[in-house]
Each structure stands twice: as structure tokens, then as C-alpha cells.
Structures
1.
Amino acid sequence: MTESIIDSAKDWSDRLPQLAGQFEEEGKLSATIAAELGEAGFFRMLVPAVYGGLQVHPLEFIEVLKLIAMGDGSAAWNVMIGATTGLLSASLPEQGAREIYASDAQVLSVGVTAPAGRADRIEGGYRVTGRWPFGSGCQNAQWISGGCFVYEHGESAMDTKNHPEVRLMIFSADQVNIENTWDVVGLRGTGSHHFSVKDVFVPDRRTVLIGGRANISEPLYQFPLLGLLALGVASVALGIGFRALDEFSQLAVTKQSTGASRKLAERGAVQASVARSLADLRSAEAFMKEAVNNAWDYAEQGDPLDAALKSALRLAAANGTHSAVAAVDRLYDAAGGSAIYMDSPLQQCFRDVHVVTQHIMVANPIYEVVGRVHLGLPGRSML
């Protein structure tokens, strides 16, 4: 692993708990913190080296996210979104990739792939209108992207598989209207507002065909995109889970409930809760690493990944997320009444990790998809 990026993530893990309250109150990371995270290289983790990126191994990527989430879930979520959006650089035309990613080492690009916009083909590019939810980190980004259905001469354009063509359009920040909509229960510091554009021009060099092949043949860019995104989501959840375990352990050695003769740490039921939570987190992390290693072996050889390998990545990510939730819930319950106060880190862990579960990459329907693959049943793939 690249020691510098891992060491930097550890430093941020120690620093972020003191900033978490500020992020929640302001509903976003400050511009200063976002710039410092960019300077540390976190947003460039998945950008190709040819464009000045770090091009890290997926195991480094998920380790960095876990460590940062152990400091604050919102900060880790913004890093995850910035880093995974950086993958676009491998699929953009070279001119567009260099314009966005090679010109500024601290650049932050964010976006939403869901096709909530319309892009009409015109000479040299597209005329785009749309509105997208969940624009995490949009207030600090220089570039913001949104998925669009493509139209040509007023008719829906079709791709090579005769499906409606969907492209990701990358807008400069000054083309985008950010709406103040992010008032939620958890991950409050992510600033995941709605954003919109109206009748803006996007040149061809700043568009990516969704489902198309990367222009760079390195193993990282042959690795399943959806699998990597799902693992990023799960890594944030695991980091929150490990933070909850640390916070509870500190509480347990000092807290003595009213009328009790022993501290929490001395009670057998509490010891069992800690052990079960530790097992949930460590086993989930091990499954994720195993799935990554198996898929990486194929990506390194240039071999296409079959449905079993892709489904293992998605299952490991979903399992990692829900295992983290189980651990946090158990620890929150064991902490008793002290966990409900707003100055308790456990209540923030509880809120944040439950918001992570709502991301489509790790939501419950993925279990059905993976089950169908394992049983050899046909069906539309979401892998």
C-alpha cells in the first residue's frame, strides 16, 4: 500500500472528530477542509497516473475511506464521492480529462449518474437541462456531473444494444444552480443538495457514455465500476462502525449506571455485545478484501469478470454496510441513555450509518440480484 496516503488518512481520522460538530451545523465541509482533503490526494486516488492521479489499488481506496470514516462519516462520504467521480477521467476523451483533472492537483469533481436530465445533441456537444438529487460535496466542487438521456433531432437516441443512450454530462460549477435541500437525519455534513442546470452547453470532450469502456487499459479501470462504488459506500459504513466501537469502549470503562455496582465494561452482557460487534465488523471487512483480491486477479490479467465475481463484490459491500449497522445498533443499545444526547458520538454514528444503508448500491434489493446469480437464474443484471 502507498504508505503516505494511508498515513495521511490516519492523521485525518484523529483530527476529524473535533470538526464533526461544525460539519453537521453548517451542513457541509468547509471550503478550507475540502481544499486540505484535496491537497492530501484523496480526491485523486482513482485518477490515472497519466493525468496526475494516484491510481491506487482498490484495497488502498477502501482502507483510506474506512480510516477517514472513523473520524467522521460525512468527511469520508465526500472523499468517497470525489474519488469515485474521479474515475470518469479514465473514460473521458483525453482533452476533457486533461482539462478537468490534469490542470489542478486539488480538483474536486462530484456528481450523480442517475439520468435525471435531458441532453439534446447539437454541433460540438449537447444542450442540457435537468435536476438531480444527492449532489454530495457540490458546494465545494469545481466540476459537477449529472446523468442524462440523450436526444437527437427530438428523438430518443439509442445505444449499440438498442437501449436509450445515457451519458454523464460534466458541468463547470458556474453552470450549476445548487438548491438548499439537504435537511436530513444523518450524514448532515455531506451537503448533498439537489442541483440543476437549464439549457447549458456541454462540449463532447466533457461527456461519458454510461456503460462504455474506459480509454485506459490499466487494471484499475477494468475493475467493475459499480462494484468499486459499492465498496466505497460500505467502507464508509465500516469506518463508522469501528468508530462506534471505539467510542463505546471508552464509555464502558468509565460509565456506571445509576444504582449499578459495576461499570458497563464489567458486565457480561456488555462484553458479549462488544465481542459480537467486533466480529461483525472484522468479518465483513475480511469478506470485502477477499472479494476485491479475487476480482483484482482477473482485472490484472485483462480477463473479463464473470457474474459470480461481480456479485461477490456487491454482496460483500451490502454485507459490510449492514454488518456495520448491526454493530452500531448493538453498541447504541448497550450504551443506554447517555447515547441519546447530542454530544454523544454514538448518536451521530447511529444516524450516519443508517443513512448509508439507503444508498442504492448497498440497499436490500442487491441481495435478490446476488441470490439469482448464485442460483443460476436468469434476470437483468444490476452488477
2.
Amino acid sequence: MPAILTPWRAVSAMFLLNGALLGIWASRIPTIRDAQGLDKSQFGLLLLVMAVGALLSFPVAGRLADRFGAVLLTRILAVLYAASLVCIAVVPVSVLALGVAMFFFGATHGAMDVTMNSWATEVEKAAGRPIMSSFHALWSVGTGLGALSGFFAGQIDLVTSVHFLLAAALFSAVCLPFSAISWQSETSSGSRGEGTPLVSLPKGMLLLVGVVAFCTTVGEGGMVDWSSTFMIEVTNVTEAKAALGFTAYSVMMVITRLLGDRCIQAIGPVNMTRISGVVAAVGALLAVAGGTFWFSLLGFALMGVGYATIVPMAFSRAASEQGMSAGTAIASVATFGYGGMLLGPPIIGGLAELTSIRAAFGVLIVLAVLMSFLAGAMRPKSST
């Protein structure tokens, strides 16, 4: 009888849980904002506080994972992350209290992101083949399930505190037991990363890996916040129909991530990055130049295909960096990647204000081409 607890299932469960908790949060953002009596600009500042919490947690989580092991840190952070979600829902009506809770939520989310990816690279190394993309596919599935819980909670008028408590408890109860697998994480008392500062930015070829991740996540952030606006303003469809653009993008991203490991194994990460960049560029070009609903829908779907495997490959590449511990290397690339998610929406929004949303999306064509041009940086160091 095959074992229920396997390394792949253990890491997959952590990715699913991480995504689910974020999806739960995102599904009730309007409710939380209204309950606190905040306008969009005020809440935008609190979202920035949450993002700062994540950015500050990356290097700390990387160093702690190197010291104590990614598995142990992931288990602890999963519990703290779930608790931080509940804290957001139960804080009193106070901007300061909500800001502190959101900072904690961002920090635990970001820290777990680093440690679970570090664990994932260990499992991938032991497997001897690419499997990182499948983990990120489960993360995408988790965000969808978490968001779906928000839909059902809204349908029955479930208060946010009860929804967050029940949903966090349910997903934790399902996912956390899988992490109980016996696994000895790689640790270093300082041999591999000795003398490195707490905050380590990527250097050399790893810097280019960070740039590739940045190019991708600018597009991902732009799609999350601006795809519906693009569909409404460019193709003149209703708000309900506009949502199909992001749906097509998300569905194709999950499908591509599920198939991505086999593709990477067949053609290698460098060729996969080149092809992905071209596909994303063609998709953005179709949306921008086509200007119709169907061209935009097809373009967004192709962008989902093009972006899907880049970040998983970037983390795998970072873990192979020589002279830098896996946790620190992943944290440094994650900083670039998360920076793209932060800067993407305001970049596109600012350009749209100066020109048009259609012209602003043209930036994504340029970044996708650059991503393809820098594909050589994605070659694992061990193979050179």
C-alpha cells in the first residue's frame, strides 16, 4: 500500500494552505475595509504596510531556515500565519490595530513563502527532476478555494471573524498533518553562508534571475489589479464579462503549472524561459493590438501560460547558487519577485493615467521580451 505521507504531498499541502489563507483574506477585503470605515486611499496605505511586513520577513526567514531547517520553520509559520488571519478579523475598529494585524499577516505570509519554497527545493533535489511548478500550481488552487469560501460566507451573511476562524481551522486541519512527515532539512551553522549580511540581494547571474522574476511579477500584479479595467475600457464589455479575462488567465496558469515540470524536464529551464517570454509577449500584444473581447481573452490566457513557470524556475535556480545558502538565495530572489508584485499595479496605473490602459499594458510586452532575452541566467549553476 503506498504511503499517504510523502515529501511531495507534504510540501504541496503547505503551498495549498499558504494560498488558501491568502485567498480567504482577499475575498473579504471590501467587508473589512467597510467595517473599519476606511476609504480606498487609507486602505491602500494599510496594504502597503502588509507588503512591507512581507518584504522585511524574507531575509529573516531565509537565514532562520538555513539555521534551523526549512521544515521546522514552515510548520511553525503555518500556524502563526493562520492565527494572523484571525487577528485581522477580530481587531477593534482602529486603523493602528488593523495596521499591526496586517503587518503580522504580511510578515508570516512572506516568511512562510520563503521557507516552504526552500523545503520545496530540497524535495525537488531529492527527486532528481523538476517538480517545483506543481507546488506552485497547488498554491494557485489554494487561493481559488480560499476565495470560494469567501463567496459562500457572503451568501449566508457569515460575519468575517467566524468565516476566518472556521476557514483557517478547516484548511489547517486538512493540510498541517501532511507536514508531519519525517524529513531532515538542510541546515548550516555558517559554512555556506558565513559572513553574509542579514539582507542579501542577488549578485551576478542571480541578479539577472531576480530581474526575470521581477519582469514576470510586474505582469502578474498588473493582471490581478488591472485586467478587468482593461477589458471594460478597451473592449467595452460589462463588469461581469470583464471578469472572464482574469479567469482565463488564472485557469491557464494553473493548467500550465501542472504540466510545467514535464516541460522543464524535457527542454530545460533556459529554453522554457525563452518560450515562456515569447508566449507572454504574444499574449500581451494580442490584447493590446487586438482591442476586441476575444483577442483580449486569448491574449490574457497566453499571458497566464507564459508567466506560469517562471517564478518556480527562479526559486529552483536560486537554490542551486554556489557560495550562498538556499534559504538566503531564495529570499533574495523573492524580494525582487515581490517587488514586482508591488510595483506592477502602480506602474500600470500611473501610465494608464498619463496615456491609456491599452498603452500601459504595452509595457508588459517589453518586459516579456526582456524575460526571454535573459533566459540564460536560469541555467542551474550545477550544470555549468
3.
Amino acid sequence: MAIFHMSFKILKRSEGKSSVYLSAYQNREKTIDNRTGATWDYSKKDGFFGSTILSPAGTPADLVADSASLWNAVEAAENRKDAQLCRYLDIAIPKELDDGQKKQLVLDYCQENFVDYGMIADIAFHDLNSHNPHAHVMLTLRTISPAGFGNKEREWNKKENIEAWRENWEVIANGRLKKYGHKSRIDSRSLEEQKEEAERKAVFAKTPEAKAKWIAKSIRLDRTPMTRIHRHKWKEGQKLRKLEQEEKRILYKKASLTYHKMTNPIEPEEVMKIEKTPLSQKIKDILETAKNKLNSKFADFFKPKEKAKKEKFQSSYIIDEFGEHIKKEEYENYEKNNKAKIKLDLEKDKGGDDDDDDHDGAGTIDIDMTPEPTTSHRKKLKI
């Protein structure tokens, strides 16, 4: 996958650096620094895929005959011990392109953005057949004419130029990727800026697919930027790089799952199957029961309340057949306690009548005390 990387730096003599040294390293050459007498030999290092010098029209031919001649001339033109010697940059090249396309891309970019504005560009290509194809570019800081180097061009040091150069690399690189049929693209903005844009586009997306696409992209971009590890600390930095790559892998997987869920809703047949399962039916029954209880409570609440009926007054006394007031309780107890006695007296009276059948019955009057169905028994009176 193509990545964006472009870093700019100024090489300063005050930091103990030499443009001849840097040229020898990037061009994998053995070079003598005429100013210091030092020899720099990087000819045995591998990963070198060639170099090229691009120069504006009117540049003296001997000045750009080779890298050693160019940068020794630059060192000679600078007298100050704190002189700025050159601007240099590293460019990550899309690995989707073949070696010829990679080289042509970098050459066209440098011509349009640097050489056409008066700079000399010394370009070296490294590791084009690896997972990290890149180019090193050294740029002069002084104007050039047939007479040689002129004054420093301060306009080239403006910060907005760097932003423009980064954006221009994005445009030309993406153009070549599209031209040669590759889907991958690069972006010159920071991860945070790209994430904010993806979140904005997700909000205003017109279709579910577009919304899912931008949400997935925002998830992928929510990661820590890759740390640039210096070549001298590459072994020590492998653990950090591994963690950064693992974070990126996890976020890409999460983004892919999110996109799949948002763009593949449950089919109607699957929904029907889910609704027919015992668990879903049980939940449905529970909700229906709760709903009925709730409706019942509402109905009871709004139902008009019945008024309590007043009980009629009932006296605790009764009036017997003699017109006397007797308590109900005493009357009932009397009947209960004397019922057996009354029955016995009646039986005796009946027996006495049988004995008197031999007499004429003079001197006695029988009064029938047989109780009526609704009254209690009374004793027989004798006169």
C-alpha cells in the first residue's frame, strides 16, 4: 500500500555536517572533501539503484559533472562557519509502481517543483525493490548562472513552500497511481486532519454505504503516526515499529467489521427466524403481560369509586307477646336454656291427663298451650 512520507531539513555546518559527506552516503560513493581533506567511503553499502543530477538551464557543465564536483563547489562557496549548505529531503515512493515508473515520478516532481525555480537537485534512489522504496534529494540554496553560484535565495526558505511541495507530491503521485491502474492513494495531510474530514463526510453522507465508508475510514485513521526511526537506531526501534504496526492492523480489522455490519443488514428471512425462536416468543409474552397489567392499573385508577352504603339501625330489644321489651340476647338464651325443660313439662302434663280420664274432669280446665309454628312453647296453666 502506498504511503506518504516527505521530510525536509537544512544541512548546517555549525552542526559539524558536510554536504560532501551527505552526497557520498546517498550516492554510495567514495568522495574526498576538499575543504577538510576527509574521505567518505560508502561505496560498499547496498540498496543503491542509481542517481541523477537535474540543473536549471545555464548551469556550468563542469559544476554538475558528478556529485563530488557539485558539493565541493558548494562547500567552497560558503565561508561562514555556521553556513547553511543545502536542503535535503527523503521521499517515500509508491511501491505499486515498477522501478522505471518510480524513477520517472521522482524526476518529474523535482523538475517541476525545484529545478524550474532555479535549484540544482541531486537525486539518489534506494531500495526500489523492497517494501520501502524511497529517494534522497539534495537541493542547492544559491541561485545559479553560467558564472557559477550567486546569492542565497531566501524565498525558498518560506514555510508555505514546504506545504506546497508536500501537496504537489500528493497530486503527482496519485496521478501516476491512477494512470497505471492502481487504487491506492496517498495523502499529504496529518492523520488527525484526515480523520476530522472523514467524520464530517460521514455526517453528511447521503447513502448508508457512503456513511459506512467514511466511518470505517475515520476508525482506520484513529492511530498513532509512525515514528521515523534513524538508521543508527533501527534495531532498537523494531519493538516500537512492531507495536505501531499491530495497532494499525487492529484498527483496520475493526474498520472492516464496522463497514460490513453497516452495509449488510439482516435479511427479512433471518428476522422471521429470530422472531419464531422460543426466547423471542417468551420475551414477547412477558411484554404483553406487563402491558396488560399496566392497562388494568390505569383502568382501576380511572374507574369511579362506589359510595359506602349506610347500615340501617337495628334495636337490641324485641317486644314479646305480652308487650314487654326484652333484650334479644336474653330472649334467645331463655329459649335455648329452657327448651328441654318446657318439653319435659309438656310430657308430664300429657301423662297427667291420661290419669284423669277416670274422673269427670270437674274442677279443671285444660288450656291448649301447643306452640304455634312461629312462637316458642309455653307452660300449660291450671285453674
4.
Amino acid sequence: MATRALVNARVLVDDGFRDDLAVLLDDGGDIAALVPASQARTQADEIDDLAGGWLAPGFIDAQVNGGGGVLFNNDTSVEAIAAIGRAHRRFGTTGFLPTLISDDAEVMARAIDATRAAIAAGVPGVLGVHLEGPYIAPARKGTHDAGKFRVPDVAEVAMATSLDNGVTLITLAPEQVPLETIRAMVARGAIVVAGHTAASYEQARAGLDAGMRGFTHLYNAMSPLQGREPGAVGAALEDRGGWCGVIVDGVHVHPGSLRVALAAKPRGKLFLVTDAMPMVGSDDPAFALYGEVITAVDGVVRNAAGALAGSALDMAAAVRNCVRLLGLPLDEAARMASTYPADFLGLGGRCGRIAAGLQADLVLLDESLAVRSTWIAGVREDVA
């Protein structure tokens, strides 16, 4: 018998939100079953009345540079990863990849070791690591330090793909590394995507053919789509199998461009990321990166040169923006924050849906689409 039933909420399942279901959780942290709400009291030891609202799969963020006043580059420790996870959980994120911006090999190795230790210690929500650079293009560097950029040798490829208990996501510029390097990373189990790239359409296509799975923050820091030069954006929009992360904060990408991407890509191939910096979940609007103080002004994060330097976005706000700026129905916006990133990361059999046998990672939204509660492996935390 399931130990607990979640009742009295609209539950997101494959065909949309349903108000006639109860979600049964077992004592191992998984979803035991979905049953008619009328049967909940006969099949569970305890009843949790959610008092309305929207119950969706917990949000999954594949690009989290920081949160709670912590930047992963500045503190590659288990404690830092846990602090980042706590900061984002209050905004519905139940799974995330701590993301390291281009840095030295020694810092990368420490980040991977910390991620391995965090997963082994059961730090809530940690799914793996995202290495954003340093194998990227100086012409599309954004706030990355071009002095860190390099082409990895065989030993560095082995180091960058050495995480053995979680997902490794690597953002690179396909024109900056040999295609054989992409193939080697993929063969070692990494998910490789294009980002911060000045690639031509042909170079981006060659990267996809070599095993790249998609594109990091579509439109941002990549060669644009033009009539005679489709660029990386053109390759991303054309490719039917490739996934694209998008930052829906109303700043990084114009809503019209996002609607074009939604029209061009097959359903399920666009997913939400935050590219979040330390001010998410913190009262401090400033942080240091590469020795430079970066400050969010009116919610927009830029460096001294005026380049966007990540975001102050959280996943709940990204979902709301999909509804309010893009006109998406809530069920599809929620899937872009949960189901689709889970599939992109190869974790669809573990999380990203409310279905029997999957981990009980959930988020409860109120009528204003603010987060009321989250569950990670069945453990509930309410937002104060």
C-alpha cells in the first residue's frame, strides 16, 4: 500500500491537467500509482490535501551557474552545490546540473569531483554537471574569459567526461575542436551541444553528424540565421532531432524569435533553462566572476562591457513567461520545464513526468503560478 496520497490538485499527465486523480507515493520516494481521486482514502495510509493548485513534474534545469549567493566557478564544493540547489528549489527546481563557465582544467576537475561527491552524498536534486566551455569561440564568448579557451587533448577529454554517477553535459563550439573530439566525448557518455559558437551552417551540421545532441541557449552567443548564411541558428531550427535550451526571460531572446523556434522545432525539442547566476534566491544583486564584479540591474545581468552575463531567472518565472509572453498553455510550459529536459538528459525513465514507477519529484503551483511546495524523491518542502 502506498503510504501517502496527494489529492485535490490538478495533476499534469500526458493528456493535460486532470482534476479527478490522486497521486500515490510509496515510502521509497517513488510514484506508486495514479488512481481516481475517489479511491485515494482506501489505498493510502495518509492523505495530503493540496487545497487546489497545479501539480506538475518538478522542474529540471540543465544550466545553473549559481544561486543563493554562490557561483559554482568560485566555489567548487559539495556545500556550494547544495546551496545552489536549495536556492532554486523554492522556485520549483527539483533537478539541476551545476554549471561551470569556462575555466582552467584544475577547476574543471574539482567541479567534477564535487559533483560526484554531491550525488554520492544524496544532495537533493543534483543530476550531473554542465561544462559550458572552455572549448568555445572567442567571437561569441559573451562573459566567458577567452584566456581560458583551448582545444582539449586526449587527457583533458578523459577528465571532462570522468563523472561516473551522473550526467555530463558539455557545451562547445564545433568549429573550435576536431570532430573526432566530439565523437570521443560522446563515446565516453557525455552529452555534447553547441553553444558560444561562430560556426557556419555546415560546421554546425558536421557537429550534429558527429554526435552533438543540440544547442545551448538557442539564439544567444551563436551565429545567426540569415538568408544566405543559415549559421548555427539555422542548423538548430532545421534539425528535427536536436534539442535546444531557451532562456525565456524577455531579455535574452525576443518572444517573436521564440515563437519562430516553437513553430520550427518538433514538439518536445525546446526546453527551458535559466542560465542563472548567484542572485537567484539571494538578496545580493552582485557577484564576482574572473575578478570582475557583475551586478543585476532591473533583473538583467550584464558585465562591464555590456554583454549579458547569465540571468536572474528562475524556472517558475520561466514557466510563467511561456504562458504570458509566448501564449503557451500551462501544460506545455510545464513540460518544457520538466518532461523535455528530462528526455534531453536521457533521464525520462527516472523523472520529468507524473507516472507510476518514476521518482516523486513534483512541484505544486498556486493560481498565480507561484511555487507552493516541492517534492524531491517524495520528500516535501513548502515555500514559506
